[in-house]
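Ticket closed. Logging final result for CDGSH iron-sulfur domain-containing protein.
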Amino acid sequence: MGKAYIAQKAPFAIEAQEGQKYAWCSCGLSVKQPFCDGSHKGTAFKPITGKYEKSGTVWLCGCKQTGNAPFCDGSHKELKD
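Final structure:
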């Protein structure tokens, strides 16, 4: 599988609600970033799905290079221009 498209070089701040489901875009092609819109079809990528464990601000990865998907781990700070 190739590298994902970098949607943006910063995380997305999301106001999560405990128990709310999400489908995070792992390919970087979705126009509904950071969430999946099905743009990955025909690629090896699939969305990361789950439920938020608690309410509050969560930082979802925008660069798609995180080692802690779907959450930001600071990988965007290492990207070259």
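The CA atoms of residues 30 and 38 lie 7 Å apart. No further action required.
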